Amino acid sequence: MPKRTPSESKSPDPSPTPKILQFKVWLIGLSPMIWRRVQVPDGLTLRELHGVIQVVMGWEGIHLFQFMLRAKQFSPMESAARSPDVALSELRLRQGTRFRYEYDLNGPWEHEVRLESRHGADPQRTYPICLDGDGSCPRWDPTPDLEMRFGYGSYPRVLDTLSAWLDGRTYVAGDRFTAADVLLASHLQWGLMTGLIEKRLAFEAYIEAHVHLVRRLNWMSSCWPRWRDDTCSAHQS
Known about the structure:
This protein is α+β, with helices and mostly antiparallel strands and 237 residues long. It has 6 helices and 7 strands. 15% of the residues are buried.
């Protein structure tokens, strides 16, 4: 009988070329169209794709976001939503697949995202990359009413409101000393000392009324490490 020859060991296949997905992203409902064409690795997650869209579109990345794909919601905040930390490769996107990306959920900017193509990575390129696009995203310039409703403030208006509230008052809440005075007095003194808060008569009068408190807080802060060590030593002995 013929002798069996051991099968030759096969050398491992070289690592496959990373798959690249090309998307076109555009803002819905605006004319002329504001759009970008990007290429990203398919190992990117939806959360990372959110970061890419933020950069290429020119957003500031300070609001919540969500993706809507096949009637499923992917969001970092909604308990009923799916996690956006899912890789694009796991979503089984086909060429031509469209899905929705929403940014700033209080008054969302809606984007359409379409998969145009998929191909191997170009070794001469670094991904993600923006290939083309047109238009600039609109700047959000809210009215005072929208600022109040959506939680956006104006720093000068905050100072004006606080200054008016403190004018003629010794305590920030009610007619006696509370923890709110500890917080506000220490922050105001630090802000005035560093120049981060502009000097106003109401602020300076409020600090003067609580100067003994501020000094005591500073003294307690400086003594805290020694007290802690002494207390620990007493408990250990």
